[in-house]
Amino acid sequence: MLVDSHCHLDFPGLADQLPDVLRRMAENGVGAAVCIGVNLEDLPKVLAIAENNERLFATVGVHPEYTDIEEPTEDQLVGLAAHPKVVAIGETGLDYYWQKDQPEWQRQRFRRHIAAAKRCGKPLVVHTRDSAADTLRLLQEEGAEAAGGVMHCFTENWDIARQALDLGFYLSFSGIVTFKNASVVKEVAQKCPLDRLLVETDSPYLAPVPYRGKPNQPAYVRYVAEEIARLRAIELDTLVTATTDNFFNLFKHARRPAN
Fold first, then answer.
1. Phi/psi of residue 201, each to 5°?
2. In angstroms, what CA-CA distances link 206 with 162, 215, 216, 227?
3. What is the pLDDT of residues 38-52, one digit of tens each?
């Protein structure tokens, strides 16, 4: 059984086709998926999706790109994370690609998420783009290793990867690892310890080869797993077993489906 550790099933293109999305997941051996929260306004939709299927889980957080939204407090995040289907705090982190002025409000929001994760005992789902040094610095300063978490859609080099691993974090790889020009990502996918590796789609974005440029969906996480197994010269079943065990080791509040 594969697990898509990061997708957005409430987004257009997936939410309105959910029965078909779930059917294709099953056909491709994808037994579970995490629907990621990106703001408080849309969280009820995320939770409703997770509540209606034992194979789906949710997270609570506000994405660093979002500006004109309700700003979460630490207490809010902790309270919302008490929902039985919520397995993590996030998506959180820093994004200096879209926010090129490197705003302090992003860093303060990230700190609140880290504090909330430590309080509620659930791991972090971390987004970083053009901000790796600050992301690692804040994780270290705030003692994020106490909560643990995953660097989602990892695209940084091995030096950044090693520092994240040293903090006890996992690395999650998306369809980018299948792209021909993604040599840095491929290298890290080869070097990452097998017991700290996850796979994801980030759907509806970043569809892997052979669907690159088309809408993504959780069923396609199989192509991510196949490419990483090829890069590491191991059997696909070995990679599948490891990444699924890793998922449930990290997201301890996620209940493993019976079959």
1. -110, -35
2. 24, 8, 6, 15
3. 999 999 999 999 999
